[in-house]
Write a structure and sequence with these properties.
Length: 861
């Protein structure tokens, strides 16, 4: 048990955490730092060697081990750290990776158990603070602010990316495409990927740091602490494949990468590449700029010291649940998956007996899957390796390992071939580092490193050749080579280019030839386009099908515009009426005729499913009514009324609805379906929004109904012009939305109830009380945009009757009295209005202009 100081240094990128850890390492007599990437370990190793000397510093990673006999300062990857080493100083970098699904349990173990005699340092994001308080209460937490400001700069085209920028992509193919386009636009770019050897990576970084090129194209590996003079970080996408599925980056991942922009006191910016269909949300921008992320409440944990008595006990301990609420059982990593697959084979399980063999077998199963083959394929490779390690001397023969390394020592082939060989040689470099697996470890490890370096250099040369020798395709054209060799691409404006020359545009799935293409090359370029267009269109079709899925992001999904389905700004299908309102059909645009018939059928099915989901979502209130109308237990009267409401868009006049034929149970059922029974109308409030009404209007017109206008939702009242829009009723010379009309009528009835007062017991010898008269304030109606004339018309529709105010006597002046209303419900829709009492001739005064009560009085009969 060490009694040294434990310090957690937390904060965003560019806070000098790693620099502080290196200073503290060099200040102690011995120490080690664990990093998430071997490239970062190699970078810090070179810095410490410059301070302490090569004979005092060790580099220990899975594929590379430089360990002089007297080494006292060690730079390692997290997996290669010896947590039990007796060193004065120990540190773990990027400790928040304890929440990573694949490697999180490794970082959690180092955080909990790695300790230095004198000092232990935990470096990571501020989100770690709560979990450190819980798991390591004795740790001192120090928060460091960022040295510079990080701000969002918005999307920018690749041709206009500012100098000293890093473009981050999430696949090797995307890295190559972006680098090649930068070569055309800006003269070249450096490339940094995890597949490159440290020497090649350093050479590429030096191109950028020295200013020989102004752009760097990299994978998300630069987010883990690689220090570069980058002023702007542009994301070529915001999604990546994490080994299980393709998903959007988390906000901490975005911030980790974007934080590479800005060095020391220089401010930095971040954004996306325009035209890639990826944009930051406002919440993501705020969180990245302000460095505010959701705190981590749990880290992934797995028993780092499982019992090795037998395979069952080993697997049981590896799958055991943690005993602390701040820890969560780690998802099954690939090493455990391989262990379980091989343990299920009796032929292999019989060879694993005793603690020593179980430990050895677990070490073999822990071989990283550098080739990304998946658990099943990687298990076959491990099984072949175990056959040799479990027999005879228990070591791989010199000739066998040398032969495997020699097989990969070939620098010919294309980029993909070289990448595959680099991944394979990394596996053998890892194997060669184990002295208990390989005879002549030093020699085999040196051979593996040399082959990896040659393959990486060949890959670098192949990339350079592609970027520099672009015009070699011109020679192919002059020699009459196969047109399929000519490069074809689509730029940000959807222009199809062959050998850098635009020959047409791809509008959705419709290819239109540019009439200005040069005549001497037109036929050859068109032939090349015809060879490549099927592949381009197929990829676009797959993207469309993916965007139609239920789990696709809303910003990528198609858009319903009137009777068309639009995707990425282009109409790709029309909506046609079906046999039922909620069963429309999809007719694909003729531009999709270039696609194979099976692909068109898949697109049609995907669009139909997407359309039905959109209808179920946007017209959910009407769908409930339609479904209830099919229930025979509802009764014929209620079913007829519900069908009428569906056909009318959710609004039916009360006097035409047949409501009186319903019993109280049926009315209660209507209310549960979301129908509001008003004084003048029956309506569904959820259908009064513009989006549902727009959808219903389109579907109704497609099914043979008359298309009606949809009013502005911010105008409750509007001047009458033709028939009322959907959801409105006529009120004199204006239209008013039915829910607003019901609100005014409810206020009028409330006013009537207040004037009437509580009911009083009447004596038999007295006459019946007179119907109460009351005044109404038109202010609320005026605020809705109604005129007094329209307001009076609406009140009369609901059965309110006004009495003409008496005229002022002669020689008396003043504003006229407001009209007094009373309610007289009609028995029939065509019942006559009650007449107002006559006024005395010659005694009525002229109302004052501009008075709303006076204007209302003038409209009375």
């Amino acid at each position: 048990m060490h009694d040294g100081v434990i310090k957690a240094v937390l904060g965003p990128t560019n806070t000098g955490k790693t620099h502080l850890a290196v200073e503290r390492l060099c200040a102690h007599s011995s120490g080690a730092i664990g990093f998430p990437l071997r490239l970062l370990a190699r970078e810090v190793y070179d810095r410490v060697v410059a301070i302490k000397g090569a004979d005092k510093v060790a580099l220990i990673t899975g594929e590379e081990r430089i360990e002089p006999p007297g080494a006292r300062w060690k730079l390692c990857t997290a997996e290669a750290m010896d947590r039990d080493a007796d060193l004065a100083f120990m540190a773990i970098d990027e400790a928040q990776l304890g929440a990573d699904r694949e490697r999180g349990h490794v970082f959690t173990d180092r955080l909990l158990n790695m300790r230095g005699r004198e000092e232990t340092m935990i470096l990571g994001s501020s989100a770690l603070a709560p979990v450190i308080d819980t798991l390591i209460p004795e740790a001192e937490i120090v928060t460091r602010p960022r040295f510079s400001t990080l701000s969002h700069a918005g999307p920018v085209k690749l041709s206009r990316v500012p100098p000293r920028s890093a473009i981050v992509a999430f696949s090797a193919e995307q890295v190559y495409v972006v680098a090649e386009m930068l070569r055309r636009f800006r003269g070249g770019a450096a490339v940094v990927m995890g597949a490159l050897s440290p020497q090649t990576r350093n050479a590429q970084v030096e191109l950028f740091q020295s200013g020989e090129v102004d752009y760097l194209v990299a994978t998300d590996a630069i987010g883990m602490g690689l220090n570069l003079d980058v002023a702007h970080v542009a994301f070529a996408g915001l999604a990546k494949f994490d080994g299980v599925r393709r998903r959007r980056l988390t906000i901490p991942e975005m911030a980790q990468i974007a934080g590479r922009a800005g060095r020391h006191q220089k401010d930095g910016t971040f954004g996306t590449l325009a035209g890639e269909g990826a944009e930051f949300t406002e919440d993501e921008i705020f969180a990245i700029e302000e460095h505010r992320f959701a705190p981590l409440d749990r880290l992934f944990w797995r028993d780092a010291r499982p019992r090795m008595d037998n395979l069952g006990m080993l697997i049981g301990d590896l799958e055991a649940a943690p005993h602390d609420d701040a820890l969560a059982a780690a998802p099954e990593a690939i090493d455990l998956s391989v262990l379980k697959i091989l343990s299920s084979d009796p032929a292999i399980a019989d060879t694993v007996r005793g603690r020593a063999m179980v430990k050895r077998f677990w070490d073999v199963c822990s071989l990283p899957d550098f080739r990304s083959l998946g658990a099943d394929n990687h298990a076959r490779f491990v099984a072949r390796l175990w056959q040799d390690l479990s027999k005879g001397t228990g070591r791989l023969g010199h000739d066998f390992v040398a032969g495997k390394i020699a097989e990969l020592d070939q620098t010919s082939g294309d980029i993909d071939t070289l990448q595959g060989r680099i991944a394979a040689i990394r596996s053998w470099a890892y194997i060669a580092q184990r002295p208990d697996w390989v005879l002549n470890r030093e020699e085999m490890a040196e051979r593996a490193r040399a082959v990896e370096t040659r393959l990486s250099d060949a890959l670098h040369a192949r990339l350079t050749e592609r970027f520099v020798n672009r015009r070699t395709t011109v020679l192919l054209r002059k020699l009459g080579a196969d047109t399929g060799l000519l490069p074809v691409k689509i730029d940000d404006e959807n222009a199809v280019q062959v050998d850098g020359e635009e020959i047409g545009k791809l509008d959705g799935f419709r290819f239109e030839v540019d009439p200005q293409a040069r005549l001497e090359t037109r036929r050859l370029l068109l032939a090349a386009a015809e060879r490549h267009l099927p592949g381009l269109l197929q990829r676009r079709a797959e993207a469309l099908i993916s965007d139609c899925a239920a789990d696709a992001p809303d910003d990528a999904a198609p858009v319903w515009q009137d009777a068309e389905i639009v995707w990425r700004g282009t109409a790709i299908a029309k909506i046609e009426g079906g046999r039922r309102l909620f069963g429309p059909k999809v007719r694909l645009d003729p531009g999709l005729s270039l696609l194979p018939a099976p692909t068109r059928a898949r697109i049609g099915e995907a669009l139909t499913e997407w359309l039905h989901r959109a209808i179920s979502r946007d017209l959910k209130p009407l769908r409930r009514l339609a479904d209830a109308a099919e229930d025979k237990d509802a009764g014929p009267e209620l079913r007829a009324l519900l069908i009428a409401m569906v056909d009318a868009g959710g609004v039916v006049a009360r006097d035409l609805s047949g409501l009186d034929a319903l019993d109280e149970a049926q009315k209660h059922r209507m209310r549960k379906l979301g129908v509001r029974i008003g004084a003048l109308d029956l309506f569904v409030p959820a259908m009064l929004r513009p989006a549902p009404l727009q959808r219903w209007t389109v579907l109704s017109a497609l099914c043979g109904g008359m298309k009606r206008a949809v009013a502005d939702p911010f105008s409750p009242a509007r001047d009458a012009d033709g028939p009322p829009p959907v959801g409105y009723r006529r009120a004199g010379p204006q239209h008013i939305r039915v829910d607003m009309a019901e609100r005014l009528l409810a206020a009028a009835h409330e006013r009537r109830a207040r004037w009437a007062g509580p009911p009083r017991r009447q004596r038999s010898n007295r006459a019946a009380p007179r119907t109460p008269r009351f005044t109404l304030d038109p202010t609320q109606a005026l605020s809705m945009g109604l005129t007094t004339q329209s307001y009076a018309h609406l009140l009369r529709q609901a059965g309110f009757v006004a009495d003409v105010p008496p005229a002022l006597p002669d020689r008396m002046f003043g504003p006229p009295a407001p009209p007094r209303w009373h309610w007289k419900p009609r028995r029939r829709p065509d019942a006559r209005r009650p007449r107002a009492g006559p006024s005395k001739p010659g005694t009525r005064t002229v109302p004052r202009a501009g008075n709303p009560f006076a204007e209302l009085a003038q409209l009375l009969p």
